[in-house]
Every structure is written in structure tokens, then in C-alpha cells.
Amino acid sequence: MPGIPDPLAQFFPMSRGNAVHGFMGSIGVARLPTDSIGNFTLTLTNLVIGSAIRIELLGDGSLIEYRVADAASEVFVVPAYGSGNPGNSLRIKVRKSSSAPFYKNYETQATALVGSQSIFVSQIPD
Amino acid sequence: MPIADDISIAANGDIRYTGAAHGASGSGYYTVLEFHRFLQDRADDQTSSGDDLMDISRETPSDKQFDTIITLLGSYNIDDTLAEHLYGGSIIQGGGNVIYDGVAVIAAADAFVEVVQNGALIANDFWNSTPFGSANSGLNPDPAQGLSHRFMLKVRTGGADIDGRRLLVQTREWGKTFSEFKINGTSRGVNVAALNFSNDLNNLTAVGTVAGFTDIVNLTAGYNQLDVDANSVAEPYYSRWDRGSRSINQFYERMKWLTRRGSAETLYGLNGELFRGITHEVAVTTPRSGTVAEGVAASWTGGTGQVLARDSGSTATKLWIQLLTGVAPTAGQTITIGAATVTAAAGTPSTERQVSFPFCGVSTGSALIGAYGFALETADLSVNDRLFDLNNVQRNPPNLVTFTVAGLVVGEDTVLVGPENGSGGLLLNQFTLNGALSGAAVTAVMVNGPIPADTPTTGTIRILRANGAYTRHPYSSWSGSTFTLASATNFSTNNAANGANCYISYIDKVADATTASFQATYLADRPLYVRRRDGGATPTKTFEGVATLGSAGGSITVQRQSDA
């Protein structure tokens, strides 16, 4: 359990939660699944400038981030969760269909992890 | 009107038209590509707005394979109303279960276009609407490209093609040329139908006038045999029309009237507007049962049709049908016609026949170039008409010409018209008898050699008798080398010897009118000798002259010189 020292005693209550660090001891509390364990740095490359980008949860489609690309590469920092957490399953939508040149909708998926990943976006003219 | 103002997108994927109706101000029409662009324009918005529930959070609504082929994805769909406002391609939706295909009509502006689908006219002919502010009917015209209409039609629904996606595009406007274009299964994108829509210079009579041509009737609506070319061998046809007192062109106009747009007439069991004439000749064989009727529906696996003619009711070997839906019968298929059945023959039983527009054929103004199998009664035909029998052989009616003697005095003059001998005299030996005539009741006169084909069907002949006289004998018919006399004649006394002279007296009577005439089939110029005599109360000198029966007939006016 990182960040929790081991002085004299450790206490793990029945409930899970954030770690609490106190004098002469610490109480380690496991993180909730909804707590991120770090950041996932996602870089989308080869973007057509002007494309609308939406990163959402695969499970329920809830929005994580929306952005219009102003460069060929866009970097997104999103939270990463423990392994198996559905919050790590991402859908990435890239669309440029409001003005010419038009491109077919691009859609892919990614799994967030603590670290970084680059995705090459291949947008096909529409 | 911007497309966004005319279309709504619901959360369940229903995409609907919300704009003005056809013909109203602001009614919107968009290509399928514009429609796709609109959806995609909304699809990359961050959030939806108005009645278009579409943004980047929603599933991709559409996909473009080509500019003319748009597929609606997932649950996205249009209805028939919105389809009426889209053109220039196809819309595929429901995973391919529903397809609207594009149609572009090449025709002159203002053409009125009908579409037959699955054997029936599409009642909602929205494509003929007149756009607001336009002088001509027809949606989405493109005169620069010669297009009068552009629209979409549903050709597949519920996962099944509607009659194999077949469409028959036609125009049948009064005063205009009739035309049709068959699309044997639409393809994705734009399907072109080319129609001839121009003034018909042989169709200038007011429609209301032609409606009164009720003396034109079809005497035999079905298989019948006529000797159109007068070669003594009858040919098969599927009609025998009587044009009554009307000219051949008026007859042609009546045929158009029967099958014009809006017709309430029935031909061979079909509404006139759907009647096209024979499309297929089908050879049939055993097993068969029942009696095959004409003017009734027929069906087989993969198609339906209307029987216009059959060569026999109980032992039919040929059917002539108008195909209504599907494809023509194939070998071995059972064809059901009411309570009767026949079997399509082996090999290739169905022969496609060319249809004409209108169904009767083409009018030259003074003659008819008939459609396949179409016929009038022979008395209503003239030499310039051309018919095609059910064997698809062209038949030319004979040239019936009339020779007239004018200037006669009724009850006074006796007229004789006979063959000319080449020297200005009467050819007495046009024939010689083949066998003596000596019976007490002779009804047949046989001559040596064939009787010329230009001999009138009825008339009189003169026969040299034993006493040197040429006696007059009416005949009721002739065939080969034999005249059949109109009544039994006694030759037992003053008989006629074998080899005795005989000739046709084309006119041989006392004048009962100021003119006398006979009709014959023209084959070649025939020189005639004409004699008129009047030895009555006011006698005149004998008139003798020669004339010619030519391709346009002939005439002569007798002279009168007193012989008082």
C-alpha cells in the first residue's frame, strides 16, 4: 500500500476509503474504485485541424472531454483507475463534418492506465 | 429554406420532414448528399440544439458510400414523407431492410410522369407537383441536363424487394406522344428513365370529341384469325377492331383515349391506363386442365400477368400475355388462369414481344403501323396499313381500288366493262372453259388457268354458248380456277362447249345510278374495255372506250351522242 508508512501500528478499518496518516501510526484505507490512481496521458496524432473530439466512457457515454483540434496532435490527460474499473474504458470520437473538407466519423477505443499512449487517427475523407 | 429548418431528428432516430408541403412556399427539396451533410453537420456539434437531437455524443447517423448512396446507421430512419423531399440518390436504412432508390426522368419540361410498381399505378405521384413559383410541373428538374423530374421511390420494405425493384415509368398525356421506360430492378443511386414527351401531330382532336367515338369497338377481344393480306390464308391476331365511321387516324386517337392518363376504360380486364398490349408469347403444353379464358389474370411462381389471347380454350398451346409483375413463366412452371391450369413448355417457353406506345401502334396520319398482334377487321384496313400478326409476320392489306363509269342515265344505259384485248376491243377469250357446261343445274364454272387475283369477289362472267351468244352469269365467289355461280343455271340446252370463251364482265348491268363501279384488289395495271348503249326512247350512239384500272383505281366518263 504505497504512501502508508509502517511505524508502530497500522489499522485497516472495515470500510474502505482514502488513506489517513497520523502521528505514531497510520491508518491505511483502500481507495474506492471511483478514485483515480493516477493519470492517463492520451495523445491523438494525425488529426485534421478543426475536428471535433469527444472522449467519453464506453459504458454509459458520459463525457470526459470535448475539444476541437487546433493542431495535428492533441494531448488529453484523463484519470486512470484500478485494473478492471469500467472508468478505464474509453471511447474516442473524432468527427469533422460541418465544413469542407469533410471526413468520415472516426471512432476508436482505449483503456486508461497510469502512463501514456499515443493513438494515430486515420480520418478518411467523406 | 435551409435543410435544418425542414428536418427534425428525434432521440429514437426518427428523422422527419417538418417543412412546407409540395407546391407551397418554402417547400424544401434536398439531395441525399445534402441530407447526409446535414446529419454530419449536426453530428460533430458538441451539443444538440432545436429539434435536431444530434451531436457528437450520438451514434454516427449516416454513411456515404458514394455521393448518391447514403446509408442511415443504427436506428436512424426517414419516412415516406421525408423521402418525397430527397432526390439524387438512394437512402438505405434498417440494415438494408428499407431502400429508397433515386429516379431521374429524361423528358421535356412539364412531362406528366406515371410510375407503375408491382402491377399498379403509384397513386401518390408527388413527383408531378409543381414547385412553388415554377411554371412547370415536376420536382427537382434540371433542364440543362434534360431532366424533368428527380425523386426517390421506396423499392424495398420489410426486408423484401417490391416486385424485384421493378418500375415502369410512363407518360400518357392527351395530345402528346405516349412513352414508357422499364427499369428492371433499380440499382442504388440514380436510375434514369428516358421518356419521349412531345406533341403528337396525329393527336390533335379535342379529348371530349374522341370520347364520343363510341362506334369504335373491339369485335373480338382475344384470339381470332383474319386474312389481312387477302392471300386466302388467315393469320392470328388478338383483336378485331371495327373503326365504324372513323378514319384510321381517328381510330388511333380513340386507342390513345382508351389508355390515356385517367382512363376509366377497361381493356382485356385491365384498366386502360395499365394496358400495354402483349408483352410475352408463352408456349404451353400438358399437363393442363380446365378452359383457359381471355382477358383474365394468370399467375405462376415468380410472376403474374393478364391473358390477352390463347389459341384454344381447352387445348391451348400458346398464351399471349401482358406481364404485370415478376418475370415471365419458365419451362415447366404451372400457370394458373382462374380455374384452369397449363404448363409452360420445355426449353424457352416465353418470348418477349415489343410493345408500342400507344398499344395499337403508330399512326402516320393516314395509315396505321400496327403493334404486335393488333388488328382491325379487314374491311377497315387500307393498302398503306401494316399489321403484324401473332407470328410477328408483317401483313400488308391488299390495295382495294375502285373503277367507276360516270355519266350514265338511270334506266336507259346499259354498261359493260370487260377486259381489253390490247387493240381497243373486248377480250372475249380471257378464259376458256375447262369442260363443257351441259347440265341442267350448273353451279360451278371451271376455266383453264388460274383466275386473276384482282378479280372481284363477286360479279358476273360472260360465257360463249352454242348459239354464239355470250350469256351473263352472276357468280358469288371464286377460287383457283372455278367460279361459283350465284344460282344454278340450266346449260342442258344451248350449252357451252369445252374450250369455249369466257370473260369477266366487271360491270354488266343497266344503270341504276349515274355511276357504276366495281372494286378489286390492285396487282398490276389492268386495261379495260368500256361499252355503253342506250337504245331506248331517246337513243344514243354506242360509246366504246378503254381505260385502266391502276393503283389508285380508275374512271371513265361516257359520252352521249344522240342517235335519234
Characteristics:
heterodimer; A: 126 residues; mainly beta; Immunoglobulin-like; four-stranded antiparallel sheet; B: 564 residues; seven-stranded mixed sheet; seven-stranded antiparallel sheet; 41% strand; elongated
Task: Write up what this structure looks like.
The complex is a heterodimer of chains A (126) and B (564). Chain A folds into 2 domains: 32 residues, no CATH class; 83 residues, Immunoglobulin-like (Sandwich), CATH 2.60.40. Chain A has no helices and 10 strands. Chain A starts with 9 loop residues before the first strand and ends in a 6-residue tail after the last strand. By secondary structure, chain A is an all-beta fold. The model of chain A has no long low-confidence stretch (mean pLDDT 85). Chain A has a 4-stranded antiparallel sheet with strand order 6-5-8-9, with no helix packed on it. Chain A has a 3-stranded mixed sheet with strand order 1-3-2, with no helix packed on it. A 3-stranded mixed sheet of chain A has the order 7-4-10, with no helix packed on it. In chain A, a hairpin with a 6-residue loop joins strand 8 and strand 9. Chain B has 564 residues and is mainly β. Chain B has 4 domains: 192 residues, no CATH class; 108 residues, no CATH class; 73 residues, no CATH class; 157 residues, no CATH class. Helix content of chain B is 7%, strand content 41%. Chain B has 5 helices and 44 strands. In chain B, strands 4, 5, 8, 9, 12, 13 and 16 form a 7-stranded mixed sheet that branches. In chain B, strands 21, 22, 23, 24, 25, 26 and 27 form a 7-stranded antiparallel sheet that branches. A 6-stranded antiparallel sheet of chain B has the order 34-39-36-37-38-35, with no helix packed on it. The mean pLDDT of chain B is 96. The chains are: A mainly beta (126), B mainly beta (564). Chains A and B meet through strand 5, strand 8 and strand 9 of A and helix 2 of B.
